[in-house]
């Protein structure tokens, strides 16, 4: 009952890791604000989460547009709701060689993965610091630790998210607010379809993909215990540790081998 009346805001909450996180918050008694672009998905997810006996407020926003991130904050403030926990989960990638991908699509991904995340963190963190309590979970990735051929922009955005999260965490360490970065690897979500990545070697072995429920649990526990970051999954922990001691050029080559299309010759 200690969480009764507290609100958690989760972006990209209707599928994958975001949905599994929303379920965990609901089970622990948090009221929820959930957002994504699709109104029908929001309505369906809201009904599912309300079965836990919590309030759920769906808000349709397109966070590819950074102005809608400001609008999301304004809508919540207008309702007089205090957000105790912010989960910046919404994110997307695009697959292919950088010189061949549409620049407008890449810029939209940068706006979603970086700009809107920064806007929401700025707005809600300011409120949290002023009152002396709050938690933020930012979805980074093990991609944040290694250059990613075939996903150059996505890996770059996640490197930003991790660096940004660690820096702001240090700035606010004495304020009663914690910032945690969740770093999953390949996870069984719709990410790869949205990124047009079905041809990549990285997604051919579905059995090797992490369960989004397991990733969400790792992130939730790290967030609630105030950790700075968590790499989800033993295999991913090993990969991150190995990449830290290898030259970046070697890591980039290995990622190229992992992520290139299956029809490409080694």
TrEMBL record:
Keywords: Oxidoreductase. The keyword Amino-acid biosynthesis does not apply. Gene3D superfamilies: NAD(P)-binding Rossmann-like Domain. Pfam families: adh_short. One of its GO terms (molecular function) is oxidoreductase activity. Belongs to the short-chain dehydrogenases/reductases (SDR) family. This is Short-chain dehydrogenase.
């Amino acid at each position: 009952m200690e969480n009764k009346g507290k609100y958690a805001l989760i972006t990209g909450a209707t599928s994958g890791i975001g949905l599994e996180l929303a379920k965990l918050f609901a089970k622990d008694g948090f009221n929820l604000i959930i957002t994504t672009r699709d109104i029908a998905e929001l309505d369906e997810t809201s009904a599912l989460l309300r079965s836990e006996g919590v309030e759920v407020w769906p808000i349709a926003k397109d966070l590819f547009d950074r102005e809608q991130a400001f609008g999301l904050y304004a809508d919540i403030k207008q309702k007089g709701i205090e957000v105790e926990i912010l989960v910046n989960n919404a994110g997307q990638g695009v697959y292919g060689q950088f010189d061949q991908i549409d620049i407008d699509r890449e810029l939209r991904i940068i706006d979603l993965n970086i700009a809107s995340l920064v806007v929401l963190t700025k707005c809600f963190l300011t409120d949290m610091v002023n009152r002396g309590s709050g938690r933020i979970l930012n979805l980074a990735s093990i991609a944040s630790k290694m250059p990613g051929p075939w996903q150059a922009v996505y890996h770059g955005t996640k490197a930003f998210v991790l660096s940004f999260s660690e820096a702001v965490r240090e700035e606010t360490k004495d304020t009663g607010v914690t910032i945690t970065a969740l770093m999953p690897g390949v996870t069984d979500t719709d990410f790869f379809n949205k990124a047009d990545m079905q041809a990549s070697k990285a997604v051919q072995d579905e059995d090797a993909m992490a369960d989004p429920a397991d990733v969400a649990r790792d992130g939730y526990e790290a967030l609630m215990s105030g950790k700075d970051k968590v790499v989800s999954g033993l295999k991913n922990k090993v990969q991150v540790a190995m990449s830290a001691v290898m030259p970046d050029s070697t890591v980039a080559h290995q990622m190229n081998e992992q992520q290139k299309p299956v029809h490409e010759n080694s």
